[in-house]
Specification:
The chain is mostly beta strands. It has one domain: Tumour Suppressor Smad4, CATH 2.60.200. Helix content is 8%, strand content 39%. It has helices at residues 101-104, 107-112; strands spanning 2-6, 12-15, 22-25, 32-33, 44-49, 52-57, 64-66, 69-70, 77-79, 84-87, 90-97. Strand 5 and strand 6 form a beta hairpin. It is globular, with a radius of gyration of 13 Å. Mean pLDDT is 87; it is low at 110-119.
C-alpha cells in the first residue's frame, strides 16, 4: 500500500513501503522533506507494518497530531486514509492506496505530484 501525503501547497508526497522507516522533516536527508519552519529537521518517521501505515514523532519542537489528538514522542500511531496528520503547523492529508503510483494518481494528481519518491 502506498501512502500519499497532500500538503497545503498542493504537493503530493509519495511514500512506498520499505524495510526501514521513512524520515519526515526539513532536512534533505529525509524521505519526505517538508520546507516549513514549524517542522523540525527530523520531525517524524513513517513505516508500513502488518498491512497498516504508522507514524512516530521524534521529539519534535512543535509536535505531531492526528486530527485533534496530539501524539506522544517515540510511540507508533496508526494512520488511515482521510486522517489529517499535522507536523508542527503543517497539515498533511493522508491517502492510502494500493500498488503502483503511476496507476493510482489521477491526471489532476499528476500535475501536483512533486516526484519525490523516498528511498
Amino acid at each position: 500500500m502506498i501512502l500519499l501525503l497532500s500538503d497545503p501547497l498542493l504537493r503530493v508526497h509519495v511514500v512506498e513501503p520499505g524495510e526501514t522507516p521513512v524520515g519526515v522533516g526539513r532536512d534533505p536527508s529525509n524521505g519526505v522533506q517538508l520546507l516549513n519552519r514549524a517542522v523540525s529537521r527530523r520531525h517524524a518517521e513513517l513505516r508500513y507494518r502488518d498491512g497498516q501505515w504508522w507514524v512516530m514523532d521524534l521529539a519534535s519542537m512543535n509536535g505531531t497530531s492526528i486530527g485533534a489528538a496530539q501524539l506522544r514522542c517515540f510511540r507508533w500511531y496508526m494512520i488511515r486514509s482521510g486522517d489529517v496528520l499535522t507536523l508542527g503547523h503543517m497539515p498533511l492529508t493522508v491517502d492510502v492506496r494500493p500498488s503502483d503510483v503511476e496507476h493510482i494518481l489521477s491526471e489532476t494528481d499528476k500535475t501536483r505530484y512533486d516526484g519525490a519518491v523516498p528511498r
